[in-house]
């Protein structure tokens, strides 16, 4: 770590020690909690810890990308709540910066940074999951506007979002051409007439994502991102970017969870013996740790290439696979090791048990969202190993 | 930590690869490599400077090769299935180098010599530990002499010197003796990889001058470094072998036809190969990281090496198994090179501790840290967590 990075790390640590909200500080009800989390992101933005590497002219910090990674690792390590505008910061913001017009960037980037406006993404559809190119949502241009109709699903934070990045078909599909041709990316105001939002309850019990229905929603022409037909290119850039840079902070979070698990096992006994004293338990923990650490080593090697100017390449798929593997192994290990003790836990342990149950349930999504494990393997087989096409 | 290779490191890697392509045999012929060829290639490797090893000193970089470069060489040797006395020669020098200034003269002299060295560590029934060796340095009227028996000494028949892990006054010590010393009898021993010559050595009061013995706290440090260096180099060699068999399997999958298609177009095989690629690449990331930590004197270097060795010991075998599944029946024939890679990887997976050995150690250390840790503070619940569910 360079001296200036170490200085930044220490500064962020001091800030977090003062300011990180604890679990008790966050309201229980979802609406109030989202408001509190917006306040938290705004506070971090004021301190210079959000969009640190984004261009200054749009409210970013204009610093080197590695600085944001340093900051994100500290946030994860301190157990700080994740930024509520995560979709704007990780997904749509980078796409706007890369493909947006000057006007679009001036309009949208600053409120993404301070969480004044939450973003969601409308990519998947009931009939277009992994097979994203088969999406059916249509946008027909009429009198200088697009008329949008269709259905989107798995839209995280849709019920709190002001804006949605929607992939829609703007041209008739050409049966002889590739299916991803004719898809465009539109910036849709979630308050437009004809937008219907229905939250869905997940296996964790939270309603984090929604279904979206567009019924002849009018979208001004200037809300097209890049050109008609560029939607696929933007989506691929977006997903690659997300995969390429999210792993390091995620790894830090996993590491804090591993340490937390070790302490939980220390403090639980079964038949009069601390769970942690069992050599089999120790080996299971070590195996979970190996997955997390190797994720870090591999992400550092591949992100290093990205930070020194290389593109986010197909190796981001390796990182994505390792990330899902590490997270799922850790969570499954926790539930397996705490399992017998969870059954007989007293009131003092119930919050801890709830945390692990939720973490375990969430972890099952890690090999599905952002491109399934099977899609990542296909990318590697095609683009790295150059195996014959299916 | 800098994880990208410097120009000089890339040059070393390519030069060794070119040297072995020119001078060594093809993988399917590795069992036919004569003693004369082994000596010739070893001489060429030494002439290249592969033993010009010197760590950093307080005064700065000495300019010699360090763990990262030596792991690059080991990876190339593994890729070509070369069978040379590199492992012991490099590991002993890496272990001694930082103390070069304070070593007894006979040991310091090894660093500037071109002698091939083998490590005599294992004893019948012992594990990969430098503690509690049954082989002793006994005090006689004429000085110290070595008594005991060592087994599974890699390249025993090809070396000039033996580095013997022993005890002196009940404490771990290191003694280096010429392979042809009086009182030393050597026998060939069978090895899972027949192309790696192994042997047992019996020490019947082999006299050793005090200038070639290291005892006390210094010995413990050097022996710890020896174990770490051995783990790194064996892991690097296994990663190299795994990379080559994977490359052969990918090529085969692109050529072999069944059911009227090239088999590499079947998703079942594409996914096996993609997973193997991730394992092999991330294995190298782990070795690369741990080697850099070793060179920088990072306090967690030994832990990183254990992680790398545990991960690669399992991962490289997984890659070999996957590749053999892709080859099918042909890989079960003796003339096919697949089993040569499998055997080499199997031997390197065992040496300096297999995966289970390192997992137990890592698990124990994790448990010890947790016992010292403070109680967990309640952290904010992980809502919201997932970036996108597209």
**Overall number of strands of chain A:** 10
Oligomer: heterodimer
Task: Provide the low-confidence segments of chain A as ranges.
Answer: none
Q: Tell me the overall shape of chain A.
A: globular
Strand content of chain B: 15-25%
CA radius of gyration of chain A: 22 Å
Q: What structural class results from the helix and strand content of chain A?
A: alpha+beta
Please estimate the helix content of chain A: 40-55%
Category by helix and strand content of chain B: alpha+beta
CATH class of the domain at 218-370 in chain B: Mainly Alpha
What series of H and E elements makes up the topology of chain B? HHHHHEEEEEEEEHEEHHHH
Question: What do we call the CATH homologous superfamily of the largest domain in chain A?
Answer: Butyryl-CoA Dehydrogenase, subunit A, domain 3
pLDDT < 50 runs, ≥5 residues of chain B: 377-390
| Distinct helical segment count of chain A | 10
